[in-house]
């Protein structure tokens, strides 16, 4: 392995890693918002909202994320949506991970014992109050770890935007292979940086999970 | 109120899941301060009837009235929600599986609803929690979490939580069925005390001894109808209906078998101990 070369190019990879982190943070935030909205829609008492939520989830989980990105970035202009590559990446992947997060959140919410809602309603709490004060705080604790799995997948999933030429880690590795002809070193370096990001995030999620754990 | 009304008035209650009739035209009343036990085999509809009183299970026919107000009024969704929330504040309910809120301390379990619904300040709510928990002998555990309590303690907190809303009526849905035998008594004692304070109570139970010693009236249900009702002395010692007799016979036999099994286990354990 050409250590010297790695030492020479790694600052550029760090810059690219920052872009990967930005992509990860933005797509996860967008995903959490879309996920929460879609989960709420899927559990609504209005049929139309339930249908909209279900369609969103099955469309985004049922097609390759790469197709979704291409459709948005290359197909968008055809229907008047002009986005630069970074924007398209954030929106496309955010919507994609949102569909998975919606299912994670819904799963956590429905797995809170039904007796909890009954007890709250029996005291006179409204549906909303019972949800906010009783179901949600318990569901939030249950969803931290599975959302962590979604987030882990999403960080690695940001590599897809290399295909629409966003200059992040994977794209950078590919570009340096073009000039150095050293694919092993370049992908190895990118891989190390991905592991770093994933490990730190994983630790953060474990910490959060421990912090809100009940006695 | 000019018209005399029954405190709890259930009129022609019907509940069906498709073709399955769980409650078949049940009418019964409960007076203020009366303590009523509902007994019967599982599947008799007794829990469904209890849960219909505060509309946890909605009736498919009939009416439930509390203190002159119909609980299961036919109203548009939003209005009904408002109405039922107000009604439920007056009806306390205790569940077989306690249903304490695991993410809240004992204190917060008791104070959440009064703070949220009656606008109590933190100070007022704390005082209320202390009173109510003292009443059920759980004051020392006020800062514990539910997972740190025994079943009997959980149930006593659940009773305090219900009482903190100052309900007019208390419903008990097999409150001691999920408890280990040695923990039943502490919950029974709390319920007895409540009975002595003339709380109106409707108690679905499998414990005939408790029903006999505490209740003014026993209602025997089977297959969705009230088969027989009356003072415990009559229903337990001198039932008129064949179905009641059969149920009590079976129940007694089971009770004896259980006692015998426990005694046998105890003897065996002692013998083992002696052999060592």
Automatic annotation (TrEMBL), chain A:
<dbReference type="GO" id="GO:0043190">
    <property type="term" value="C:ATP-binding cassette (ABC) transporter complex"/>
</dbReference>
<dbReference type="GO" id="GO:0006865">
    <property type="term" value="P:amino acid transport"/>
</dbReference>
<comment type="similarity">
    <text>Belongs to the binding-protein-dependent transport system permease family. HisMQ subfamily.</text>
</comment>
<dbReference type="Pfam" id="PF00528">
    <property type="entry name" value="BPD_transp_1"/>
</dbReference>
<keyword id="KW-0812">Transmembrane</keyword>
<dbReference type="InterPro" id="IPR000515">
    <property type="entry name" value="MetI-like"/>
</dbReference>
<feature type="transmembrane region" description="Helical">
    <location>
        <begin position="12"/>
        <end position="39"/>
    </location>
</feature>
<dbReference type="InterPro" id="IPR043429">
    <property type="entry name" value="ArtM/GltK/GlnP/TcyL/YhdX-like"/>
</dbReference>
<keyword id="KW-1003">Cell membrane</keyword>
<dbReference type="InterPro" id="IPR035906">
    <property type="entry name" value="MetI-like_sf"/>
</dbReference>
<feature type="transmembrane region" description="Helical">
    <location>
        <begin position="187"/>
        <end position="208"/>
    </location>
</feature>
<protein>
    <submittedName>
        <fullName>Amino acid ABC transporter permease</fullName>
    </submittedName>
</protein>
<dbReference type="InterPro" id="IPR010065">
    <property type="entry name" value="AA_ABC_transptr_permease_3TM"/>
</dbReference>
<feature type="transmembrane region" description="Helical">
    <location>
        <begin position="147"/>
        <end position="167"/>
    </location>
</feature>
<comment type="function">
    <text>Part of the binding-protein-dependent transport system for glutamine; probably responsible for the translocation of the substrate across the membrane.</text>
</comment>
<dbReference type="GO" id="GO:0022857">
    <property type="term" value="F:transmembrane transporter activity"/>
</dbReference>
<keyword id="KW-0029">Amino-acid transport</keyword>
<feature type="transmembrane region" description="Helical">
    <location>
        <begin position="51"/>
        <end position="73"/>
    </location>
</feature>
<keyword id="KW-0472">Membrane</keyword>
<keyword id="KW-1133">Transmembrane helix</keyword>
<keyword id="KW-0813">Transport</keyword>
<feature type="domain" description="ABC transmembrane type-1">
    <location>
        <begin position="17"/>
        <end position="205"/>
    </location>
</feature>
UniProtKB/TrEMBL annotation, chain B:
<dbReference type="InterPro" id="IPR017871">
    <property type="entry name" value="ABC_transporter-like_CS"/>
</dbReference>
<dbReference type="Pfam" id="PF00005">
    <property type="entry name" value="ABC_tran"/>
</dbReference>
<keyword id="KW-1003">Cell membrane</keyword>
<comment type="similarity">
    <text>Belongs to the ABC transporter superfamily.</text>
</comment>
<dbReference type="GO" id="GO:0015424">
    <property type="term" value="F:ABC-type amino acid transporter activity"/>
</dbReference>
<keyword id="KW-0029">Amino-acid transport</keyword>
<keyword id="KW-0547">Nucleotide-binding</keyword>
<dbReference type="InterPro" id="IPR003439">
    <property type="entry name" value="ABC_transporter-like_ATP-bd"/>
</dbReference>
<dbReference type="InterPro" id="IPR027417">
    <property type="entry name" value="P-loop_NTPase"/>
</dbReference>
<protein>
    <submittedName>
        <fullName>ABC transporter</fullName>
    </submittedName>
</protein>
<dbReference type="InterPro" id="IPR030679">
    <property type="entry name" value="ABC_ATPase_HisP-typ"/>
</dbReference>
<feature type="domain" description="ABC transporter">
    <location>
        <begin position="8"/>
        <end position="248"/>
    </location>
</feature>
<dbReference type="GO" id="GO:0016887">
    <property type="term" value="F:ATP hydrolysis activity"/>
</dbReference>
<dbReference type="InterPro" id="IPR003593">
    <property type="entry name" value="AAA+_ATPase"/>
</dbReference>
<keyword id="KW-0067">ATP-binding</keyword>
<keyword id="KW-0813">Transport</keyword>
<keyword id="KW-0472">Membrane</keyword>
<dbReference type="GO" id="GO:0005886">
    <property type="term" value="C:plasma membrane"/>
</dbReference>
<dbReference type="InterPro" id="IPR050086">
    <property type="entry name" value="MetN_ABC_transporter-like"/>
</dbReference>
<dbReference type="GO" id="GO:0005524">
    <property type="term" value="F:ATP binding"/>
</dbReference>
């Amino acid at each position: 392995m050409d250590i010297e070369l790695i030492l020479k190019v790694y600052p550029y990879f760090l810059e690219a890693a920052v872009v990967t982190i930005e992509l990860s943070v933005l797509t996860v935030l967008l995903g959490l918002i879309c996920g929460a909205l879609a989960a709420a829609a899927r559990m609504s008492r209005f049929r139309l909202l339930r249908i909209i939520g279900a369609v969103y989830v099955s469309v985004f989980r049922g097609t390759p994320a790469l197709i979704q990105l291409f459709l948005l970035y290359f197909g968008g202009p055809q229907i008047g949506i002009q986005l630069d590559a970074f924007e398209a990446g954030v929106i496309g992947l955010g919507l994609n991970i949102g569909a998975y997060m919606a299912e994670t959140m819904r799963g956590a919410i429905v797995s809170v014992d039904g007796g909890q809602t009954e007890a709250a309603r029996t005291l006179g709490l409204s549906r909303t109050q019972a949800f906010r004060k009783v179901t949600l705080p318990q569901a939030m604790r249950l969803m931290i770890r599975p959302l962590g799995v979604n987030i882990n997948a999403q960080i690695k999933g940001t590599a897809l935007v290399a295909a629409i030429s966003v200059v992040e880690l994977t794209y950078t590795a590919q570009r340096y292979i073009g000039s150095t002809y050293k694919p092993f070193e370049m992908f190895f370096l990118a891989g190390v940086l991905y592991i770093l990001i994933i490990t730190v995030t994983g630790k953060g999620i474990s910490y959060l999970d421990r912090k809100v754990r009940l006695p | 109120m000019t018209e005399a009304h029954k405190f709890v008035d259930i009129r022609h209650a019907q509940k069906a899941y498709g073709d399955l009739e769980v409650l078949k035209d049940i009418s019964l009343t409960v007076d203020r301060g009366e303590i009523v036990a509902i007994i019967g085999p599982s599947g008799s509809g007794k829990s469904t009837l209890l849960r219909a009183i505060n509309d946890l299970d909605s009736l498919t026919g009939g009416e439930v009235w509390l203190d002159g107000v119909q609980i299961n009024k036919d109203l548009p969704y939003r209005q009904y929600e408002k109405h039922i929330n107000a009604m439920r504040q007056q009806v306390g309910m205790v569940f077989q599986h306690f249903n304490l809120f695991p993410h809240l301390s004992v204190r917060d379990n008791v104070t959440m609803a009064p703070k949220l619904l009656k606008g109590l300040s933190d100070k007022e709510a704390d005082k209320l929690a202390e009173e109510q928990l003292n009443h059920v002998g759980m004051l020392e555990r006020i800062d514990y979490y539910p997972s740190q309590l025994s079943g009997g303690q959980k149930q006593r907190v659940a009773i305090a939580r219900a009482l903190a809303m100052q309900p007019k009526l208390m419903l008990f849905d097999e409150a001691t069925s999920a408890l280990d035998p040695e923990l039943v008594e502490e919950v029974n004692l709390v319920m007895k005390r409540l009975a002595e304070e003339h709380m109106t109570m409707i108690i679905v139970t499998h414990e005939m001894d408790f029903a006999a010693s505490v209740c003014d009236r026993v209602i025997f249900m089977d297959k969705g109808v009230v088969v027989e009702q009356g003072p415990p002395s009559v229903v337990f010692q001198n039932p008129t209906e064949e179905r009641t007799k059969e149920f009590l016979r079976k129940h007694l036999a089971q009770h004896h078998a259980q006692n015998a099994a426990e005694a046998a286990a105890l003897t065996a354990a002692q013998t083992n101990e002696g052999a060592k």
